[in-house]
Design brief:
single chain; alpha+beta; 3 helices; 3 strands; globular
Amino acid sequence: MPTLLDLLQSLDEQPAEAVIYAAKPWTAASDAAVAAFDAPPPNRPYLLEVVLAQDVLEVWSSWRDGARPNALEKCQAVIHYAEHDAYLDVH
């Protein structure tokens, strides 16, 4: 099973209409999967839709003058959005 870190590295290859599911507590090492909204994998709760995760990473980049997030920063931004329904602020 891929980790959330692995999955976010290949996010652009995932179907836009799919959903990301990940084992809690959500961390970069959480087991993760991409599946249809109506077919969640066992023991992996909803995290975010793929298209929403892509949006989170685009906002992360735009708020940081076009910088590209590394793998861990992608995880932090997506998890933050999933938990707080808000984009990760620039520190």
